[in-house]
Design brief:
Elements lengths: L9 H6 L1 E11 L5 E11 L7 E10 L2 E10 L7 E9 L8 E10 L2 E12 L5 E3 L27 E6 L2 E6 L11 H6 L5 H10 L9 E2 L6 E3 L4 E3 L6 H12 L1 H7 L5 E6 L6 E6 L4 H8 L11 E2 L2 H10 L2 H19 L10 H4 L3 H13 L4 H15 L14 H15 L13 H11 L1
Antiparallel strand pairs: 1-2, 2-5, 3-4, 3-6, 6-7, 7-8, 9-10, 9-16, 10-11, 11-12, 12-13, 14-15
Helix pairs in contact: 3-10, 4-5, 8-10, 10-13, 11-12
């Protein structure tokens, strides 16, 4: 690289021989690239040099990330010094090519410089490469690949939840508008009653293609608002893993090729599933998805490439069908819970579509509260109805009446604060909507 220098530095430049070699890479457990180490040897032939600085720079989107290492020549006989310089990159770059530059700087003047392109492969190892450099692109995803949702570019908005900013795509696809709903009924995958419950609940839940990353979860996706938790786990990774097992080619095209992956961890008895975006998860991914969304972009459309591929996934008919089926699976699981203080499952107390929908509505939003709140509602019903028993099998011909009274207590109660538990948002209003529908 040609560098202009004052005449007084000409001889120094001639005497400096610089060799750049990549020796190691700093990686954390989940393969997030922290930075890289450059070793460069500077041979000095001038006894007058006391302090020398080595600097390594990495250029990303016209931003320079660099690190310095002081080289202290205390001996007149020392002719070389190897400096280990670690550049900390604040964003992950596995799978991309960047320009690395090592410079020798004396008294703030560059006296020697060498540039190379570096590539971080899928195993997290740095290689020299002749591949083209990564181009400027917010979120640096595989933005032009087919199936990655580029058609949703600049359709994501920056919003705010309490004091936190984050991207959101509200979507347009209601569960009741899913074109394959009747097919699921005709094929015996869901029942007519379950179809009605889904349609009624669609008013309370998000759209099939609704996605956001503005609260305390990394990202929230779909009608059931399945999330990736702050450490990368949660219900969404499980759903994505199942989708991967059922439709491996679609998973590769719509997720893996676009930067999203899910891994199975089998260290314990129960497998855990974790989501990554370009090998990044946890706090780094949480912050990364929110880049470019702040007070200056609030209310405006922003470029958020990682969410584009998730929006595209949610528009896939197979994934939509999976969301519906998972809804029914969740319904049955919620009705299997045993209320606090009682021996019988909720499905013994609740027989109506309204009752089932109300329990599911609670379980989707506050799953850990269902047992406690349903048990408390039963306690309140028992207190005001002396003739009733704790065994729903003995309710007999009064079952419909008792259940209706129970639901009128339980529905609004879900939104109230009980000891140690904060109620769900608008429990009474959501119940009223369900009651109107069912």
């Amino acid at each position: 690289m040609g560098i202009e220098m004052d005449e007084s530095y000409d001889q120094i430049a001639k005497d400096v021989q610089q060799q750049v070699t990549i020796t190691s890479l700093s990686i954390i457990k989940d393969k997030v690239v922290e930075g890289f180490v450059q070793n460069f040897a500077i041979k000095i032939a001038l006894s007058s040099v006391e302090i020398f600085f080595g600097r390594v720079e990495v250029l990303i989107d016209d931003k320079v990330f660099s690190a310095y290492s002081p080289l202290d020549f205390t001996s007149l006989y020392q002719r070389s010094y190897i400096a280990n310089v670690t550049v900390k990159i604040p964003i992950p770059f596995a799978g991309y090519v960047f320009k690395a530059e090592a410079r020798a700087i004396l008294e703030n003047k560059i006296i020697s410089s060498k540039s190379i392109n570096i590539f971080v492969n899928e195993d997290g190892l740095i290689e020299k490469t002749n591949k083209p450099l990564y181009q400027n692109s917010q979120n640096f995803a595989n933005e032009n690949l087919e199936g990655c949702g580029i058609e949703f570019r600049n359709k994501v908005k920056c919003t705010r939840y309490n004091k936190h900013f984050g991207p959101v795509f509200n979507g347009k696809l209601k569960m009741q508008d899913y074109k394959g709903l009747s097919d699921l009924v005709n094929n015996g995958i869901i029942s007519p009653d379950e179809k009605q419950i889904i349609i009624a609940m669609s008013e309370n839940e998000a759209n099939l293609d609704g996605i956001n990353a503005y609260d305390n979860q990394i990202v929230t996706v779909g009608a059931m608002q399945k999330t990736v938790t702050p450490d990368g786990y949660g219900e969404l990774p499980i759903q994505i893993w199942e989708f991967k097992e059922e439709y491996p080619e679609m998973y590769k095209k719509m997720l893996e090729n676009c930067g999203w992956t899910v891994s199975e961890e089998t260290e314990g008895k129960t497998p855990l599933y974790r989501m990554y975006y370009n090998n990044v998860t946890g706090k780094r991914l949480f912050n990364f998805l929110r880049e470019g969304c702040d007070s200056t972009t609030y209310g405006k459309f922003i470029k958020c490439i990682p969410l584009e591929s998730l929006i595209n996934l949610c528009n896939n008919k197979e994934f939509q069908a999976k969301q519906i089926v998972d809804f029914i699976t969740r319904l049955n699981a919620s009705l299997e819970k045993i209320p606090t203080g009682y021996k019988h499952k909720i499905n013994k107390f609740v027989k109506s579509k309204l009752g089932k929908a109300t329990v599911l509505d609670h379980d989707v939003n506050r799953p850990a509260h269902v047992k406690k709140y349903f048990g408390t509602a039963l306690d309140m019903l028992m207190a005001k109805t002396p003739a009733i028993t704790k065994d729903p099998a003995q309710w007999g011909e009064n079952h419909e009446t008792y259940e209706a009274a129970l639901l009128d207590i339980y529905g609004p109660l879900r939104g109230q604060k009980l000891k140690g538990s904060k109620g769900m948002t608008d429990g009474a209003g959501r119940y009223k909507k369900l009651k109107t529908k069912l």
